[in-house]
Amino acid sequence: ERYIGITTDLKRRLIEHNAGKSSHTSKFLPWRIVTYMAFSNQGKAASFERYVKSGSGHASANKRLW
User: At what angle do helices 55-64 and 42-53 cross, to 10 degrees?
Assistant: First the structure.
């Protein structure tokens, strides 16, 4: 299972997911980081997140990111 999301504190967010604090992600424990990307601002991060979650973005990510 893959999780795609935005956070300002990656280490904290991974700990939260592995502690079962999110009902969606708690079903797929344990989580590990395979790929992460850093952006200069939240707007760019949100734009990229929407793209990766789209059909063509998802296909592109499958080929290039994981």
Answer: 90
Residues 6+ apart with CB under 8 A from 26: 17, 20
Q: What is the pLDDT of residue 45?
A: 97
**Distance (Å, rounded) from C-alpha 60 to C-alpha 14?**
24
- Per-residue pLDDT tens for 10-34? 999 999 999 998 888 999 999 999 9
CB 6 within 8 A of CB 49: yes
Terminal C-alpha separation, the chain: 12
Collapsing DSSP states into helix, strand and coil, what is residue 18? helix
